[in-house]
Amino acid sequence: MSVALYTRISQDKTGERAGVERQAKECRELADRRGLTITHEYSDNDVSAYSGKRRDGFDALLRAVSTGEVDRVLVWHPDRLYRRSADLEKLINLVEQHNIKIVTVTAGDFDLNTATGRAVARTLVAWSGFEVEQKTDRQKSAYRQRAERGGWPFAHRPFGYQRVNGEIVQVPDEAAVLRDILSRYYEKLEPRHAIMRDLNQRGILTPRRKPWGIIQLRDVLTNDRYGGVVKHGDTVLDVKPSWEPIVDRDVWLGWRSRAAKRKRKSTFSSAKYLLTGIARCDVCGAVCFVKHRADGGRSYFCSDLGCVQRSVPAVDDLVERLVIGRLSMPDASQVFAPRNEDTADISREIEAKQARLDDMAALVADGTLSADAVRAEAKPLREQMERLRAVLAERQARATIPAELFQQHAGEAWDSLPLIRKRAVVSAIMRVSIGRQANPRIFDPEAVRIEWVSDAK
Ligand SMILES: [Zn+2]
């Protein structure tokens, strides 16, 4: 067996990680682990494979493969080899004539002799053409600076505080109410709805002299400033607040993190398969569930009309290879970095609908309304909430892509993730649709449509 090592430096922004030296070192380590002896070495320096410029090393490699001198190619990531489809197709042609395998450090092995291997390679090539969307740095730093000064800019005073001669000071009555309701909510886990009713029954008004609604109460219960915490996005800044907090900072952070854990638990179901409820039917758009076949195998199955069904292991294998391949690209940490600001509006909408449901439930409990009377109205509300929750879960999922997937070899990090995290990652980066196959007996990876979830909303 002859193994060729191919390295290429690209013009990626994460230059250091992808530098030729590092690529070569990691490739050699992998060769050692796998008992492969490197017999040929090729390298192209500082040339973008995407630009289509001449690559002498790559051409020499292709020649060595075509003469049968080499039957394994070792690269750091598949995109080192081919970033343009033309390069890939050249390689696929060669592979069809000579049985060669591609071994990569970051994304596992690629067998271009199989349909799945080729589909994965083609999809990765398509993806590597995307440009990274950069947020305007200026906008970011403006928010950060304001937060770092420990300020609390408000136009209407928040419950519990007022501004006196430019200073933010507590309103004693309201501060006492705050201490009471925060501990009831976080310590005794009293439902928001009950707290809201209690406040309104006691005649306690919002700063705008109105009765409490569930949204106003939610905003109060989750306002980090009451815990003296200054944040930028989801990052807690180590800044002293310019006001006296209602509760101790450590107590507050403990409350918030426990609440987040409780919420996370209820957000994700305990699915047993990677793509249950995630993959969609490409014919009718319904989600796919898993069906146990008579032969003992399992298939993803269109849950609505039964338009498509496809082997679970085959689809999972394809999707997992694509996830690993995509996340091990040098730009992945930039493309998939969590964004913090875009769930507030959806959360609000869900809260509002929940509040209406709660109100209706309370009216039924009071005997004001009959259960039958609210049922008709509650059903569409619940359905809308389900849809909103799905969107929210998807957006939150992006924030759950574990950092280790970017920091070490995505393949190994991926394998060690629990299924629930894998599902979150898949939903965060791609849409999977299962289409009809011409020949239902042989798995056709091209009949599984993968769309990359880009940053564009
Ligand atoms: Zn269908």
UniProtKB/TrEMBL annotation:
Domain Recombinase per the UniProt entry, residue ranges: 158-265
UniProt superkingdom: Bacteria
Pfam families the UniProt entry points to: Recombinase (PF07508), Resolvase (PF00239)
Start and end residues of each Resolvase/invertase-type recombinase catalytic domain: 2-150
SUPFAM superfamilies per UniProt: Resolvase-like
Name of the featured protein: Recombinase family protein
